[in-house]
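Ticket #504: bound-state structure for flavin-adenine dinucleotide.
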Amino acid sequence: MGCSAGQLGSSLLGLWLLLCTWGCPGSAELRAPPDKIAIIGAGIGGTSAAYYLRQKFGKDVKIDLFERGEVGGRLATMTVRGQEYEAGGSVIHPLNLHMKRFVKDLGLSTVQGFGGLMGIYNGETLVFEESSWFIVNMIKLIWHYGFQSLRMHMWVEDILDKFMRIYRYQSHDYAFSSVEKLLHSLGGDEFLGMLNRTLLETLQKAGFSEKFLNEIVAPVMRVNYGQSMTINGFVGAVSMAGADSGLWAVEGGNKLVCSGLLQSSKSNLITGSVIYIEEKTRTKRTGNPTKMYEVIYQIGSETRSDFYDIVLVATPLNRKMSNITFLNFDPPIEEFHQYYQHIVTTFIKGQLNSTLFSSRALDKFDLSTILTTDNSDLFINSIGIVSSVTENNPQPSTERGHVWKIFSQEILTKEQILKLFLSYDYAVKQPWLAYPHYKPPEKCPSIILHDRLYYLNGIECAASAMEMSAIAAHNAALLAYHRWNGNTDMIDQEGLYEKLKTEL
Ligand SMILES: Cc1cc2nc3c(=O)[nH]c(=O)nc-3n(C[C@H](O)[C@H](O)[C@H](O)COP(=O)(O)OP(=O)(O)OC[C@H]3O[C@@H](n4cnc5c(N)ncnc54)[C@H](O)[C@@H]3O)c2cc1C
Ligand SMILES: *[C@@H]1O[C@H](CO)[C@@H](O)[C@H](O)[C@H]1NC(C)=O
Ligand SMILES: *[C@@H]1O[C@H](CO)[C@@H](O)[C@H](O)[C@H]1NC(C)=O
Ligand SMILES: *[C@@H]1O[C@H](CO)[C@@H](O)[C@H](O)[C@H]1NC(C)=O
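RESOLUTION: The complex was predicted; output attached.
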């Protein structure tokens, strides 16, 4: 009995192996891997895509990464008096698991502690001031806002909980063909609904008070996204999570993750600007005519081109930013016109004129971060003392003149700087097209632009953050891999949460 069952088993296995030579869904892929893949953009999106593509397609695929500026993109540091400070994406949430994994894999270290006290200024006075005593803070918050801040914490927690499902799906190799399908798999219609409504509507419906919204939530949106509560509810939740405790950054600068991923993925960096992408039929070494993408790029005044099986675009597609033209596609590849918010980061080493914010004597002023409400009429969104990328905490206050980081809508004039500071000895600025200007209802750009042409930054329509780009990169790598191998059962699966709950 045992013997015949064994025989039956092994002959079934033989049959299965035979059948699978012609392709079994979700299992052994037998199509040869692609020869060459291009990624455009070496920010966290492009470099993490290189990492995941290498993982999926193996060591023989040639991966070219195009970058016209610096590796890191919107992750960048600026030097102030010999010390480097984060000028773009700066803080990472403790539950951003992809970023955590990269740092661990690459052997990088982290810095923590964006300590100090925070105050909120409404144009006339500080409407809220943190205390260094936890219990005093709790009493103050409850005194001012009832239990609103506790409820806010629970609201964010609930969304974060659902959001975290993505890690399980991705670790089981599941991919999604659109941002909407990805979000739906995490939080169903609730998440999609959040893209359709403003944060203000969402939170008003949830019963939060005007006072709490104006004095706490709006200032957090201003510092994190340079916008008001008219942004969509989803990015609003991401932004509120960015006010959690336990935030961290990479020692030496967050951009080190990008250069690290570039290296560890053994990709080839091409320092050039991609201008056109066109599909063409090429005859490969094997002699078969194959459809490939020609990527045309400029290095200085020289124009060059190369052919690729798969292309990933990892930079916002619009004229002002990437300015890539898709030639001769039929039907044409749609143009995206997502408007990106202009934000200026300014670093100033100097002595703040704190009487601008509070009547308290200069030496009694102990706030290290000042956020502003929407109606503050001030020319800045926020101002705060920062520590360099190698320090765990801001320098002791014995030394006169901290380094302050200011976010503003426009470049600050000298008069404006002199209004804020009693004296200063150094100022540098970096203007950004920072993140989408959110205006729900959001319609997210496609991920699949064409057969083997993928777009990562559509995910920014939901929320722009380092971890979002890493999630989009992982998804695009899995999607490219499954579509290459015809594993349709790994794409857009419904009911994944229930399905994977029982599987450990
Ligand atoms: C001021 C500021 C503060 C922020 N704060 C935070 C924060 O605290 N936490 C957080 O998680 N996120 C934060 N973000 C958002 C975060 O930085 C971004 O979401 C993330 O870095 C985007 O990465 P990306 O790789 O998708 O795009 P990018 O970093 O923009 O990378 C795209 C790259 O493509 C290159 N490129 C563009 N066009 C071409 C072309 N035609 N040819 C070749 N190369 C091209 C660009 O030079 C760029 O390097 C902040 C952003 C800004 C600007
Ligand atoms: C969101 O709005 C779009 C139209 O902009 C609509 O098609 C979609 O059904 C809405 N989704 C939800 C979940 O409300
Ligand atoms: C975009 O690139 C085209 C050439 O491909 C150029 O003519 C145009 O001026 C560029 N636009 C911007 C806004 O840089
Ligand atoms: C500091 O700011 C206050 C309020 O704007 C102003 O009255 C005062 O003159 C400033 N102090 C100095 C020394 O500039």
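RESOLUTION NOTES: The two ends are 33 Å apart (CA to CA).
TICKET STATUS: resolved
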